[in-house]
């Protein structure tokens, strides 16, 4: 049976749709007799009030996304997935780039809130101040979800990969391949993702009787230049490892270029961008699923908009290691 709508009630009662809407609001602008007539028709025709539809009518249908930049293909794919998922729900995406600057992030958030966005998706800039973020968001009560990066001590919905598990996969793989001296390169020191990956790598290496030397853990920017700079720092200090784990594929591409003069050193990283498999040699990398992260973040925000009272939730995606020639010995290469 077709769903009964406001226009059906209005036609049955000989009043306008606006009048029926006012009856639902129990407005004093409608006479008692008309209210009774409309309510009787609603009961007789089986009309069910759709509170979510009423809520949607009061929305701007705009969602804000504040991310770092799109130079890293991970964030480009993440943003596109978010936009697609929101478009399917009837939302328009308002996009801003913090360039990993917390002050710029704050300006973007304030501007989006002033434009009455229905919700916010935030890839936190490095060094994001928890208290400042709380003040900005609490004042407006704008629904929000953090994506890909945590903010320590900030209670909010979150979607991202399980970084600790991702690094454990890499560490176990390198140990099983026989590498003894492993370095961890790239990623800013203030990044929760870097801290989680370093912890997971250290944990896995220790489980296989190895250690991650603090001198071999070098924080830099999360780009090609950062990867190259970290390698140059290692080589200048005479610290030549057997294997290098990079903060991201993009960081690894810079590191691999800088390592060409240092002989054969295994390299692994995170994100598993399409370019990782196409690189020479093909790069061992852990898939972190930016498209799925974006989709889950959009859906989580939709739920938060519909019901702001929901308890905060975290969605952790399960990573997957793709071992390739950059870490495999000759025997393994032929069977992978």
Q: Reading side by side through the largest sheet, how are the strands ordered?
A: 2-1-3-4-5-11
Query: What is the CA-based Rg, rounded?
Result: 26 Å
CATH class of the largest domain: Alpha Beta
Query: H/E order of the elements?
Result: HHHHEHEHEHEEHEHEHEHEHEHEEH
From the 3D structure, determine the CATH topology of the largest domain. Rossmann fold
Structure summary, number of beta strands? 12
Summarize the biggest pleated sheet: 6 strands, parallel
What does this entry look like structurally?
This protein is α/β, with parallel strands linked by helices. It has three domains: 6-49, no CATH class; 59-161 and 290-317, Rossmann fold (3-Layer(aba) Sandwich), CATH 3.40.50; 163-288 and 321-333, Response regulator (Rossmann fold, 3-Layer(aba) Sandwich). It has 14 helices and twelve strands. It has helices spanning 6-13, 17-24, 32-45, 51-57, 73-88, 102-114, 130-140, 163-176, 192-207, 224-236, 249-259, 274-278, 290-306, 330-333, and strands at residues 62-67, 92-97, 119-122, 144-147, 157-161, 182-185, 217-218, 243-246, 266-271, 284-287, 314-317, 320-322. Strands 2-1-3-4-5-11 form a six-stranded parallel sheet, sandwiched between helices. A six-stranded mixed sheet has the order 7-6-8-9-10-12, sandwiched between helices. Helix 5 links the parallel strand 1 (62-67) and strand 2. Helix 1 packs across helix 3. The protein is elongated and about 90 Å long. The mean pLDDT is 90.
